[in-house]
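As agreed, record copied across for absentees:
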Amino acid sequence: MIVKKCIVKLKKMAARVIVFLCVIVASKGIDINSLKLEQVVMIGRHNVRTPLTDGLEIYSSKQWPKWNDTAGMLTTKGLRFESYIAEYISEWLASEEFFEGCPQKDDVLIYANTKSRTLESARVFAETVFNNCNISVQHYKNLSVFDPLFLPILHNKTEAFRNQVAQEMQKKLSEMNLTASYAELGRILNIEEADICKKLYMCDLNSQQSEIVLEEGEEPNVNGPLYIGNAVVDSFIMNYYEGRPMNDVAWGQIETDHQWNLLAKIITENQNIRFNLQNGAKDIASPLIKYVFKIFKFEIPKFALFVGHDSNLNSVLTALEFRPFERKHQFEPYPIGGKIVFQKFSDKLGQYLKVEYVYPTTKQLRNCEKLSLQNPPQRIILELKGCPISPTGYCPWMSMLVLEGYCERRFKLEQVLILSRHNVRTPLSKNLAEFTPKKWPKWKEKSGYLTAKGVILEGYMGEYFTAWLQKEELLNKDCPSEDNFFVYANTAQRTLASAQAFVSKGFPDCNVTIHHTSESKDPIFNPVIHNNSAIFKLEASEQMRILLKSLNLNNSYEDLEDILDYKQSNYCMNEKKCDFTKDMNKIFVNVGFKPNLEGPLKISKSVIDSFIMENYEGFPTKSVAWGLLTNNKEWDLVLDLSKGYHSVIFNTSLVAKDVARPLLKYISHIMFEKQYKIALLMGHDANIYTVLKSLDIKPFILKNQHEMTPAGGKIVFQKILDENTGCFYLKLDYVYQCTDQMREGKKLSLDNPPEFTPLQLEGCQLEENGFCLWDNFVNLFYGVIDDN
């Protein structure tokens, strides 16, 4: 049994300190008259905007109100009302004697997302609170993209974590009850007369199921009735806030608070399913929370406002585990113009935190009421879980700082080992002409040599990995020492040349040694059988035979015969073996030799290997398989033969562990014993296949690739440190260039990266962060090596 060695002390120690201090504050109370406001940080939502969704006409045949601006733009009313909120904040700060006159520029940060509605809200706020003080709004340099600080996406890209979030979203969706809300909305829309009913046959929102949408790089979302309902009700609410006549708000069909609450429940459920997630919120909100905690730690600036969206407020409140609270006099869950206000106070005894949700009521918004200390917005005191507040809403400041470790895991890359396959080479088989009467494309290089295109592609990989490792702060801009970067390559020309291409482009003008043996066959990489026992040969052969028998390749065989015109080939005519589906495959398992097959599957593999390399090399499409592989479906059909061959010879447990053992021992030596910060091992597809099978990697799919072990592809073992807990974890990725990147020779960069496919070990349980504990991985690895 694998025992976890990582003991997490931070939470327990911090929790004891917080509880002790909180009990003192809650029981004795605080003299609020002696408190001084030291620092304010606000996270706010923009003000009134136009509806986000165009094309609402499909949901109702009634005439929709017209807006002067395009979707999602701050309105004139929104500008005015944000200034009213700012005037109130200005009065409040003055009452606390927070600033004397204009503050120094370093004392104020107004930072907004790149959307027009957030930038304009921030601008009018800054101009109102800091009138004539020359305080500008800060923002992300590229205004054409969503600022990563506010972008509500999942940053943890592991499949396990994504599945956790998907399950949580699905659970919330299944528990949702919007029957009455959908019925009321359908009535208001008169949906049976709408185009969505007449053309798309959605005539009852309750008759359709909503579905979660969770795509990499996109914010968590839903489709179906919940998406539709959210878009429509959002329009109703914005029309209401804008102050339009009630006949123009939902065509005068909303007359009571009960109706508003029914409809607003759709907005609330949409927000909760997407962002009120126990695991997801901490990940989604981590960039913004990290920024906020940096301000708290360094106590600079004195005042900060972040202007974002309802998704930001939702995910931050959820991530920090605030206790549930009632939003009085509001229908929206995260009202327009609302702000979470973190306030740091001090007295002679210490420092304290007070958090309030400050937002306008629906009445104040609709009537565009000026706000002031005499007519304030709502101020709801919020309470952090685990720290009871005093009667006036205060808890120890230390609790806020410790919470950073609860809501955000800070992972630091400590060590990387890269097991790589060489890049594009010429075909290995020298007798391809025997299998077809057609002419094969000519190559400039010898059989099995790295091509000029392969050198370029591997150079791109080297440049990318250097940029990535520098970004992760595992490397700096200087030339690496051998302790920091160790390279070992097999002795074949294609592996040595690939290593040289990686190093020369990744580390130009650096004297990086590429280590290799002087032997003609390097025993570390040589994929041969080592076990000389008769029982091993018998059992290994039987496992290969069972796997071979399980393959269903007749359609693939027939397709390849047609492509080759195989029945007209010399091999068919001379050997009288003319039918791939009927000719026999023969298995070979011999000590000192590579496990092998003879027969139609080996012939197929050799032929398809040439097709693949022709495609990577960029030969004209009419020259790649003579123009007879024109789409992914056709490629996948013949590639099943190549995958079948490699599975039979390398993908059985006995053979894989025996073949891979020397390489696994070497990996353990340089990764666990020598502990090079970065190591690159350049080998072959046989090495990739057998290592993956030996470690019992769960099934995976490489997107946008035909091969299972693409040329230039890399298994990347990453040792990462959770700085909060001191625990080390394994992150395992398959990093590779997709087929189009290779064929078109696209340069790689941090903006155009190769593909990353997360890999999981069957025997290494994932923690809640989606990673496997490093010590568990080390034990598993040594267990594989010692398994005879």
